[in-house]
Amino acid sequence: MQYLEPRTDVPAKDDWSTRMILDEPWSHAEHKVISVIGVVTFVVCFFMPMTAGNIAAIVVLAVQLLMNVAGPLVGLAGRRAERRGLLDEPWRRLPATVAHNPDEPWDLLLLDGLVLKGSLHDLPDMVLDRQEVFVCGPDAEGRAMVRAAGFMTMRPAEVDTGEYEAKERVDRPLGRPRDDPALREVLGAAWAMKVILAIMVVIVVVIGVLVALSVSPVAPTGLVTAVILATMLLDVPAMIVATRRQRQAARAVERSEQWTPVPVRLFPEKAGHHVAGVAELPGGPAVVRFPVPDRDVLANIAATGVMWTAGTHENLIAVGVPHLNSLTYAVVRSGGAAHDGDPMSWGRRLRPQQLLGLP
Known about the structure:
Layout: H1 16-23, H2 29-45, H3 52-69, H4 76-83, E1 92-98, E2 107-111, E3 114-118, H5 123-130, E4 132-136, E5 143-147, E6 155-160, H6 181-187, H7 191-215, H8 220-231, H9 236-255, E7 260-266, E8 276-281, E9 284-289, H10 295-304, E10 306-313, E11 316-320, E12 327-333, H11 346-349
Antiparallel strand pairs: 1-2, 1-4, 2-3, 3-6, 4-5, 5-6, 7-8, 7-10, 8-9, 9-12, 10-11, 11-12
Helix pairs in contact: 2-3, 2-8, 3-7, 3-8, 7-8, 7-9
Keywords: Membrane, Transmembrane, Transmembrane helix
């Protein structure tokens, strides 16, 4: 198995996949503008008459602002590591395994003469399988950053003192996609889209209440807040289509008997273009489009030139990476192979997706 791996011959902060992690936006430009308008409206509320509509606007905007606070926390550990200079040196590929620590709340990695502990989430399984890890540090204070092959995440860790027993490595054959424990986690999270759609229904109800309370007596702040919430509904049509296609991808995985590697050449990323590439499908070369780009999946494709298909349904291809809890889908575009990318329609260009940062 070939996976995405960080470069070990340049400073970590200059490795393209590490840069993607550090530069991952916590919010799109459109959302940032709306957030600023929300903050201004929230402040203005306290200078307006305390009508029912204005009070409702204060409550709704307060909840929205609290939710927005969590946005900048995305990638905070990586940015701190960069500021401390921890990423000025190249990633080091080191032999490693995972400690057996059922009584500890954190994960432990056993390197040659070094123990690192931290909350590493799903990285330890890959470290145990490949018996290696990529490390920056530790610095003078014992802090380090770790990555595992295949993952577009890096986790903070710190030096630990102690002796631990190593886990025994267990072979992980490819097998059927639906039997992959990591992929089962994704398939089991299909309820998440239903929750999002339910939230959208609640937003529609809140908008109706805001408008009703703000019409008489007139409360401009309540009406502005209703407009701010209404912008969130612009994503509903795309979410409905994505949910339907994700269900098709899940059904394709359930029917598939094997992972299939397919050579793919991704087009260079361009503003106003879909994330797409030319795949060597059984029927010949074809342009495949990724309507909902997944960073782990796309980064692995960019690094290896291989797209792992987990099943097909009509012109939709379920795409993942063996032993990674990531699943997306590709759509085969009609019209044969192209050489200049896959331009978006003019309607889609009005609200383009942000570039991922692929090489």
